[in-house]
Specification:
The protein has 307 residues and is an alpha/beta fold. The protein is globular, with a radius of gyration of 20 Å. A 7-stranded mixed β-sheet has the order 1-8-7-2-5-3-4, with helices on both faces. A two-stranded parallel sheet has the order 6-9. Helix 3 links the parallel strand 3 and strand 4.
Length: 307
């Protein structure tokens, strides 16, 4: 009831009035039965805009921290996420993440729509990053179609770190359902999981026209955070030599994506490793990406608004 009320009388009218969202391919979303809506992830607000445009309720997996906050603000946040059809997702990987994915399985078994972000976190620089295989496991175990969804312009409305959104028009494109019935019964095969995930990411790249990077967004974020920490002492020293105090929050090389040609694993012209016509799993996961997350981490969280 709360979800329907907010969508129909509160958030829905406000979003449509202020952001004037345009939508293509909405008829690709089934009117009944279970399906996965797999979207690129540019902004926290993706989890607000997309469900408002879909006639049916959409259940998202949200990072568990949204449900465990303390104080009045924390309790209100947890209540809002529960009342808006979002489920907690443990980001620690392994068995904990597997249990969270099982909650997603229950949603699909009940014939509902589930939203998921294969990249596992918001893009740090508006590019499309390598997908995690959790979406493939869900699609194959539940035996449901996957509808790729391209969010357009939401990174300009609410960039990472910005609380108050900019008022501008956004859009979304719902692609044709992807059928993976040829892989049913092979959901535990890691190579099949990678092949399915890459096919989904290829469609997202095609629909969104984003530059694709064959590397996990979470790894890039960790690297950028490390550079920022390393740069802070250098900045402080330089300002001290000049007789100035460092500006609050000043760091070097913090802007993501400013040197894409130097980012390890970046392949701007490369499509996701496995296309629909390729043999599943023909690429070596760990040798292609030295230091890549383990198999348990790759199952990883597909979370709305992960920083």
């Amino acid at each position: 009831m709360f979800y329907w009320f907010m969508k129909t009388f509160v958030l829905g009218p406000v979003v449509k009035l202020l952001f004037r969202p345009w939508v293509k391919g909405l008829d690709n979303v089934p009117t009944e039965g279970a399906a996965i809506l797999a979207s690129n992830h540019l902004s926290f607000s993706d989890s607000i805009f997309m469900p408002l445009m879909v006639p049916r309720p959409v259940v998202f997996l949200a990072k568990s921290e949204y449900f465990t906050g303390t104080g009045i603000k924390g309790r209100l946040t947890a209540a809002f996420f529960r009342l808006t059809n979002q489920l907690p997702m443990d980001r620690s990987g392994g068995a904990a993440s597997a249990r969270s994915l099982n909650a997603g399985m229950e949603v699909l078994r009940n014939g509902s729509l589930m939203g998921i972000y294969p990249e596992g976190t918001r893009s740090p620089d508006s590019r499309l990053y390598r997908g995690k295989v959790g979406v493939a496991r869900l699609a194959l175990q539940a035996r449901v179609p996957v509808i790729p969804v391209a969010m357009i312009g939401t990174d300009k409305v609410q960039p990472i770190g910005k609380r108050v959104p900019n008022i501008r028009r956004i859009g979304m494109i719902f692609g044709e359902p992807l059928d993976f019935s040829r892989y049913y019964g092979m959901e535990d095969d890691r190579m099949v999981q990678r092949s399915v995930t890459d096919e989904i990411m290829y469609e997202l790249m095609r629909l969104s026209s984003q530059e694709y990077v064959d590397e996990y967004a979470a790894v890039v974020k960790l690297r950028l955070a490390g550079k920022a920490q390393e740069a802070s002492p250098v900045t402080a020293s330089a300002n001290s030599d000049a007789g100035q105090e460092p500006a609050a929050g000043t760091t070097l090389d913090k802007t993501p994506g400013t040197t894409p040609d130097k980012t390890p694993g970046t392949t701007p012209d490369k499509t996701p490793g496995t296309t629909p016509d390729e043999t599943p799993g023909t690429t070596d996961e760990d040798s292609r990406n030295p230091g890549a997350p383990t198999a348990a981490a790759e199952d990883g969280p597909e979370l709305p608004g992960t920083a």
